[in-house]
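Task: sequence in, structure out. Protein: Enoyl-CoA hydratase.
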Amino acid sequence: MELPAPESGQILVKTTEAVMTITLNRPDKLNALTGAMYQDLVNLLALASDHDDIGAVLIEGQGKSFCAGNDLADFLAAGNGTGDGTEAGAAPFIRAVSRFEKPLVVAVQGNAVGVGTTLLLHADIVVAADDAKFITPFVDLGAVPEAGSSKLLPAWLGYQRAARMLLVGEPLTAEEAAQAGLVARVVERAHLEGAARQYAVALAAKPRRAMRESKKLMRQAAEMPLAELVDHDLALFAEMLKGDEAKAILAAKLGKK
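Result:
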């Protein structure tokens, strides 16, 4: 499919093998996100959601660090009442990424600061280079944790380790992130792009509705009582088996036998 050129000039995008690859391309500023970049990201996620020929999205960053978080000049402008503010900058992107229904893979190298870390809490697969560091200095900026990180990080890391990140501002290393389940895999820097893309291509090749409903179930599960979840997934399982997607797959498998 033909993709529109991102308006910020600091986002690159391409689609191959049913994977939309979005590259943060502001390496001189460690890929700090501006309002225009956030808008490009929102638009691209919406485009990926609406097109059946895109099965997964991969987000990566150019240069030595994945993302330095929000551009501080934008924050200052918002505080002075002269900028768009978080509601018009990061907020639509955070909402979009947290509600994105297709598989989302993120490749992280170097520093992932602020939203560069919290967006990962809404990804399905995160691959980190061995030099990755996850940093959430919200309090040090006179702000508070965003993107649901005040709930999600304690749930994954435990309260004490999350407090060291969110309150003290201590970084989380790639190895610690892997042990905690924040990242799926840690690789050498040279292998990062290939490893992340391998996951994205594999996810994009899966049956579309089955993937979407499975991701939705995983996200809903934490909020549902177990008995309700069991009734819900059994009913959905039966419904899915009657659908064209499952029928075609099962018929093909039986035909091979």
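The beta strands are 11-16, 19-24, 56-61, 104-108, 111-113, 125-129, 133-135, 172-173, 185-187.
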